[in-house]
Amino acid sequence: MNRTFRAPAAAAAAALTATTLSACGGDGGGESGGLLAQIESGQVTLGTKYDQPGLGLRESDDSMTGLDVDVLTYVVNSIADDRGWEHPEITWRETPSAQRETLIQNGEVAAIGATYSINASRAEAVSFGGPYLLTHQALLVRADETDISGLDDLDGRILCSVTGSTPAQKVKDALPGVQLQEYDTYSSCVEALRNGNVDALTTDATILGGYAAQSPGDFEIVELEQDGQPFTNEHYGIGVMKDDNEAVDAINQALQNMYSDGSFQEFVDKNIEGGVGVSEDTPGDLSFL
Ligand code: GLU
């Protein structure tokens, strides 16, 4: 490639970057505005799961329930209260595991709270408020399953998880003897488990607790440990547009409020039977990355 060709191409690339940056500048949002701009406008689009009872569930009457729904609602209302704005109207969008970063990057949602573990590769694509909850990867098995009680029993077994999730990645990296089947949603894994098409479902204990509570007597949760430690740490964050630091700070302040006024415990008691798999976390502390 000669210099006369490269120079204009470089200039064009620089111009494109400048345009993109200015469109995303200030609140860090796209055309629709970042999280804070949307809250101030009175209309905010938020992403969560639609098929995870206790965490993010769209009910048959189209209302939304679950801990993530309550946390996100609290956060946007608390941000509004701190600034003297009205509570915004929330539009919910379904955000399956594999699509979360893209939906944030495209500006299709202003923020996502969807059992969304903060990890290094995701933190390159989006920014995170939180963490607001710590849980661990576990297994769901049929209640009549007697042969699976820990990691050592998984060799040669068929495990279901979801594309783009941290538990699926962990199985691929750490358990090469396992046959992993990846579905788009955990609810389809639950049906495969019920029908005997897979031997176990692996994801966060919080999510598995929701499915177990939905079908009493059908399933059991198996905790996973390695060298006496939890197999993984899943720190749930609220994803926003990359480098929207104003939104991250505002979310973390709201999460502090949520802990200190007792709302988090209230949301856990309301949504998570027996508080299965839930520990409090430390908003703003990303030292685990
Ligand atoms: N927390 C894990 C993750 O973010 C599993 C749950 C999920 O897929 O939403 O990948």
TrEMBL record:
CDD domains: PBP2_GluB (cd13690)
Any GO CC annotation of this UniProt entry: extracellular region
Residues of the Solute-binding protein family 3/N-terminal domain: 43-275
Keywords: Signal, Transport
PROSITE patterns, per the entry: PROKAR_LIPOPROTEIN
Signal peptide (residue range): 1-23
Coiled coil feature spans: none
SMART domains for this protein: PBPb (SM00062)
GO biological process, one term: amino acid transport
Recorded family membership: Belongs to the bacterial solute-binding protein 3 family.
PANTHER family in alphabetical order: ABC TRANSPORTER GLUTAMINE-BINDING PROTEIN GLNH (PTHR30085:SF6), AMINO ACID ABC TRANSPORTER PERMEASE (PTHR30085)
Name of this protein: L-glutamate-binding protein
Biological source species: Corynebacterium timonense
Lineage: Bacteria, Bacillati, Actinomycetota, Actinomycetes, Mycobacteriales
